[in-house]
Specification:
single chain; mainly alpha; DNA polymerase, domain 1; Arc Repressor Mutant, subunit A; two-stranded parallel sheet; globular
Amino acid sequence: LLPKPLLLRQYERVLCNAVAEVGVDVNGACTYDHMHGMLTFVPGLGPRKAAALKQSIDRIGGVVASRRDLLARRLMGPVVFTNSVAFLRIRDIDQLSHQLLHPLDDTRLHPDVYHRNNWAVKIAIDALELGDEATGDPEDLGNRALRDVMQDSHNEVQRLFDATKAEWEGLYGPTFDIAGWNPRTDVPAERWRDKVEELDLDTFADMIEQSGLGKWLSHLVMIKWEFRLPFEDPRKPMEPLAGDKLFSLLTGETDMSLC
């Protein structure tokens, strides 16, 4: 019923939005032909840059071990890297089983907040109360702190899920909507017990702003949630369109417009 150019443009828009929400496994996209097309819809890439990225990764063996390598090994330029890297995920695959991947390379966080500025690392170290007593290589220490604090937050999400499910089923029986549970909106702040919840991110953001680096509170809050739910898929499970919704999409009419 729709003109083909309009339909294709809408498909492109939906794919761009989906990729921006859930990212793309860059190694998977370079390894499997059926996934390669998703690179085209990564913000900051497009067909030409996506093809160039795949060719560059193929030349070095077909896998990349970190986001930082994308720039360090000249697999993409600095501008393209800055614009697209937060949507490119480095996930654990067989070819990288011998390497210890950076824990934040599979999150929505831009490397600016955990390499250039190191704010995510500072939050993790403060949450674990390591302070100045920790010794060893700073990068190794930071990565261990990130893994530990993320595991702590993952455990807390599981605890809250189990508690919420048990409370619901105690009142209403086995009708808990697992797919519909959203810890961001369904769990009040006072119920969180993970270590990162104890930090005063507002004060940290004020310190950053006073040092002349701008307003970064939204990024700090994002760090907290990526510790808890790294690259969480915000989309709800697909449901068949009900008759009234299908009618509205096809005709543009609603109950109100037909009254």
